[in-house]
Automatic annotation (TrEMBL):
Stored InterPro entries: MECDP_synthase (IPR003526), MECDP_synthase_CS (IPR020555), MECDP_synthase_sf (IPR036571)
Keyword Lyase: yes
E.C. no: 4.6.1.12
Protein's organism: Cycloclasticus zancles 78-ME
Record's protein name: 2-C-methyl-D-erythritol 2,4-cyclodiphosphate synthase
Record text on subunit structure and interactions: Homotrimer.
Keyword Metal-binding listed: yes
Source domain of life: Bacteria
């Protein structure tokens, strides 16, 4: 068994769609990023990469490469999970937290878990997603952006 932790944050930008956990969310702002800006999946990718000692998402998908411009982060997640499997591991479970003052995310959490479970060849019961606010504190509390944390356990697939 191995454990990994990931974190990501992006600022809001007008005129972009908001995507979290692979789900398009109705909101006035999206997230500024080279890819689709899905902070939840980016944190999850970092946690998975950390669990197998493979660095971070920026090393595998640099923002200096046009290959990843506006890419769907679910594509990145599936690539990262292929690396996890190549190393002889599979997902035990993932515990994910989204920190955002707005928008309200609870209506979208189950769909996010289903998408992530599909991309990780797992059952949705292995994916736990929570959303919280910061009670108005910090950049997320001032509605400047969104952040996410991910903790994963991977277990031997053998």
């Amino acid at each position: 068994m191995r454990i990994g932790h990931g974190y990501d944050a992006h600022r809001f930008e007008a005129g972009k769609p908001l995507v979290l956990g692979g789900v398009k969310i109705s909101h006035d702002y999206g997230l500024l990023a080279h890819s689709d800006g899905d902070v939840l999946l980016h944190a999850l990718c970092d946690a998975l990469l950390g669990s197998i000692g493979e660095g971070d998402i920026g090393q595998h998908f640099p923002d200096s490469s046009d290959d990843y411009a506006n890419i769907d982060s679910r594509v990145l997640l599936r690539h990262v999970y292929a690396l996890v499997q190549q190393k002889g591991f599979k997902l035990g479970n993932a515990d994910l937290t989204i920190i955002a003052q707005a928008p309200k995310l609870s209506p979208y959490l189950n769909k996010m878990a289903l998408y992530i479970a599909k991309d990780l060849n797992s059952d949705a019961s292995q994916i736990n997603i929570k959303a919280t606010t910061t009670e108005g504190m910090g950049f997320a509390g001032r509605k400047e952006g969104i952040e996410a944390h991910a903790v994963v356990i991977v277990v031997s697939a053998r």
